[in-house]
Amino acid sequence: MQRGLYDVAAFNAEQAAQLYLKATLLELVGDFPRTHSIIFLLNELKRVGGKEVEDFVRENKRGLHVLEDAYLTSRYFYKLFDKEDVEYLVSLAEKVMDLCERLRRGLGEG
Predict the structure, then answer these.
(1) Contact status, residue 52 vs residue 103, Cβ threshold 8 Å
(2) What is the pLDDT of residue 110?
(3) CA-CA distances (angstroms) from residue 55 to 49, 50, 85, 91, 99?
(4) How far apart are CA 13 and CA 9, in angstroms?
(5) What's the domain range around 72?
(6) Nearest Cα to 49, choosing from 21, 89, 85, 80?
(7) 61 in a domain, yes or no?
(8) What is the pLDDT of residues 36-80, one digit of tens each?
(9) Are 57 and 39 in contact (CB under 8 A)?
């Protein structure tokens, strides 16, 4: 992002969120579905995170779709992202990872 490679930065934000979700599912559930859809992965995480995950998806659904698009467009199309887009996507990916951490801590304490 600092070098102006916004399409790469958007892709990396999506990958960070996707892989973090998969690692969290593997740790808490024992497996993860073979998909690239962040929303699908979050819906799987509802099995252990319940309402907190459901609320997160509802509140961030549009942004999560854009984050998923960053993966798809990098593989199959060309989409132009600007600095503002990437700052938002990085922030959203960080929120996904924070959610995963809260669930890991919460289930680890129980």
Answers:
(1) yes
(2) 47
(3) 10, 9, 23, 17, 11
(4) 6
(5) 6-109
(6) 21
(7) yes
(8) 999 999 999 999 999 999 999 999 999 999 999 998 877 667 778
(9) yes
pLDDT for position 98:
97
CA atoms of 72 and 76, how far apart (whole Å): 6
The verdict on residue 14 lying in a domain is yes
- Residue 1 resides in a domain: no
Per-residue pLDDT tens digits for 98-109: 999 999 998 755
Alpha carbon distance, N-terminus to C-terminus of the chain: 39
The residue count of the chain comes to 110
For residue 28, tell me if it sits in a domain. Answer: yes
**Cα–Cα distance measured from residue 57 to residue 77, given in angstroms and rounded to the nearest whole number:** 26
Structural domain tally of the chain?
1
